[in-house]
Amino acid sequence: MLLKEYRICMPLTVEEYRIGQLYMISKHSHEQSDRGEGVEVVQNEPYEDPTHGQGQFTEKRVYLNSKLPSWARAVVPRIFYVTEKAWNYYPYTITEYTCSFLPKFSIHIETKYEDNKGCNDNIFDTELKDQEREVCFIDIAYDDIPERYYKDSEDLRYFKSEKTSRGMLQEGWRDTQDPIMCSYKLVTVKFEVWGLQTRVEQFIHKVVRDVLLLGHRQAFAWVDEWIDMTMDEVREFERTIQEATNQKIGMFPPSISISETPLSSCALTGPASAPSTPMCTDAPESLSVPKDRLRKKSAPETLTLPSPVSSDVPQGSTLSPLTISNHLQSSTPPSSNSNLAEIAEQ
Fold first, then answer.
1. Residues near 129 by beta carbon (within 8 Å), at least 6 away in sequence
2. Rounded to whole angstroms, how far apart are CA atoms 137 and 205?
3. What confidence score (pLDDT) does residue 69 get?
4. CB of 249 within 8 A of CB of 37?
5. With 80 as the cut, is the pLDDT of residue 50 above it?
6. Which of 26-30, 202-206, 284-288 has the lowest mean pLDDT?
7. Burial call 313-330: b when 16+ CB within 10 Å, e when fewer
8. Which of 341, 300, 297 is nearest to 207 (CA)?
């Protein structure tokens, strides 16, 4: 198990971001889905917990078979997906990812939001709070983002909101920005396979970091689209977009249901959790990237993992959700004389 705490500041308030995160996740999932691939919303229901009160439960399936390298597609089912189950008791949330073909793999993200610049060192009151962890600050304006995800309209050094007059974010903006909030994320990655655990868990954390960076950039870059919405309006937007997304990836009829009646805490098991940061983040390859962008180092380009050694290998996979799969898609099949296959970023 590898535990890290990420702190991502944004020029928003916690109350504003309640709407912003729902809008961003729905829009991004729709943009990045295609027939047979993408994020299917299975369930989206009000949910009541005896400890945390009323919240929202979501279950999603992230389909990614065509994103896998050819050698991996040979040993996984034709329809392959990762399950996301989430409970949102804003401003406290947790998200979990699991895969039935990888019982030793999981990602667990506990999130809390506060109106500060990331200065609370004791925000998590869980059994994990005393465990050693690395604290990582993510700068949504100046941290390096993979070039294939870059869009001019989402470059927060140059973006200025017309409705809020916030932006353009200058170097050191977190010390002077008002308002400012911080998304604190305690991320636990488990890949309990002897000989691979440390390497794979470190790699997944680096990919998760890129996902968090992109999602929070987009939340602010799209602020003028959602800042005037009410909760009822964003829920209606969410329902409409989710149904359209399900149809877009070929799920007929859409399997989403949004109910006004809260489910009891015994109806669904699992921790409280939030809608996830989107798992697919590809941008058009034709987008040009300004040459003068000064950014920090991002995730490594490659990770080396053992490949299947024979056709008798049972069906399964050693790959994580959709964005992680995008880092793997361009890998080449292993040769007959080698036990290693390079899993490379696109």
1. 122
2. 14
3. 58
4. yes
5. yes
6. 284-288
7. eeebbbbbbbbbbbbbbe
8. 300
